[in-house]
Automatic annotation (TrEMBL):
Species whose genome carries this gene: Streptomyces misionensis
Alphabetized InterPro entries for the sequence: UDG_Type-4/5, Ura-DNA_glyco_family4, Uracil-DNA_glycosylase-like, Uracil-DNA_glycosylase-like_sf
Classification of source organism: Bacteria, Bacillati, Actinomycetota, Actinomycetes, Kitasatosporales
Residue intervals of the Uracil-DNA glycosylase-like domain: 10-172
NCBIfam families from the UniProt entry: UDG_fam4, UDG_fam_dom
CDD domains to which the protein is assigned, alphabetical: UDG-F4_TTUDGA_SPO1dp_like
Protein name according to UniProt: Type-4 uracil-DNA glycosylase
Length: 179
């Protein structure tokens, strides 16, 4: 539900970008600052993109859902992220469609299951397709996509190094596909 978020967080970046990155929804920091991927997941994403040979400054970065959804265990305590519902993804899909039409990226990096479901449908399973170059019809356009896990899942992983290396390997596939 968008009602408790501070603001709508739209995508940001170069409108001529060859690469579009699609995440899930803004997190706590993004909700405060009004920009996508400026918190811990964004820092990890930037580091991995650079290491993979992709320039974050050249990419257009956005989310499937444009509002932060959260719960609090107690008043004034930390805001804990809650995954968006299909209804929320559907409500935000015209924004994502418009961003795709404006940027016309050559490649989309799909960051996690929510972005995958928003772009490719509810049967999307990130584990089955991560690190592959897919070609799919999305909103009437042929798009090339490389799915990978969400950077937050790397931060949460028990073996963070292995998770990071897997994430980096997927981004290297994207860097090669972009040429
Ligand atoms: N996670 C996301 O999916 N998007 C953001 O912008 C930040 C964290």
């Amino acid at each position: 539900m968008h009602l408790h978020a501070t603001r709508t967080v739209f995508g940001e970046g170069n409108a001529d970008a060859r690469l579009m990155l699609v995440g899930e929804q803004p997190g706590d920091q993004e909700d405060r600052k009004g920009k996508p991927f400026v918190g811990p997941a964004g820092h990890l994403l930037d580091r991995a993109l650079k290491e993979a040979g992709l320039d974050p400054a050249d990419a257009y970065v956005t989310n499937a859902v444009k509002h932060f959804k959260f719960t609090r265990t107690e008043p004034r305590k930390r805001r804990i992220h809650r995954a968006p519902t299909l209804r929320e993804m559907t409500a935000c899909s015209p924004w994502l469609e418009r961003e795709l039409a404006l940027v016309e990226p050559e490649l989309i990096v799909v960051l996690g299951a929510t972005a995958g479901k928003a772009l490719l449908g509810s049967s999307f399973r990130v584990g089955q397709v991560r690190g592959t170059v897919m070609e799919e019809e999305i909103h009437g356009h042929r798009e090339r996509l490389v799915p990978t896990v969400h950077p937050s899942s790397v931060l949460r992983a028990e073996d963070r190094d292995t998770a990071y290396q897997g994430f980096l390997a997927d981004l290297k596939v994207a860097a090669r596909a972009l040429g």
